[in-house]
Amino acid sequence: MNGQILGRIRDFSSQYGHDIVVDGMKWRYYRLGAGPPILWLTGGLRRAAFGFAFLECLGQRRAVIAADYPPADSFRPLLAGFEAILAAEGVERFALGGQSYGGLLAQALLAVMPGRVTHLLLSSTGPADYGRAWAAVDDLCVFLARMLPERPLKRLLAGGLLKVLSVPPNERAGWEMALREVMDHELTRGDVISHFAVIADMIRQGVVRPGVFAGWPGRVAVLSAENDPTQGQGDRARYEALFGRPVEMISLGATGHTGALADPAHFVALLEQTLAGEDGQ
Asked: Which CATH class is domain 3-275?
């Protein structure tokens, strides 16, 4: 029973997965559905197929593209990879969404390609308006990731991810098994280093900063749950200062940090309500 989640992840990857090499770096991405395109950026586990049920539900009305993250050491290789994937799929304009870590990347991606994004959807993430002091914090994390033995390092990251994993109780054992399988057999030390190094580089480069979105006319929607420990009370004010306009706040109720896993159909219904009327742009 517990292996069903892992089996569904592998089936999704096999059915919808594509491989592409960009500047010598191998990418795995997923393409499914038909309709207005959306690029969805996954969270800190770095493996988009974990959202199989959510992505399949979203793909009922949209062309969905989602990618695993390779172990890049800066933001620029990720940007090149996303651009290459969009080009391979013939996508010019698209809605852009991101969950948790992917929400930070989504804000950076919008900052560098505003003319291509129709709508920004952020879930269980915060404003990527970090001051330069945060780069030093990420540098410390990179240093520790290089120094710690790999097995304890992976356990540390897995423990953090498990704390914010919100799924139905009867499915939790299966999700935990799948998460540990990925941590033990797929992710490398380079992936852990990349998790922090990319954000540090974004901060140093000033990719996301007040004023950078002033000329972008699209809507911003932020989905968050009342019981998500990663959300802050001041997030809305920070978002509005960053984007220079009101942002649409959407409640995920008590679905926790990973609402797209806890209740995929409800999560997609909220996204579709937000995207209504945007598809013709």
From this structure: alpha beta
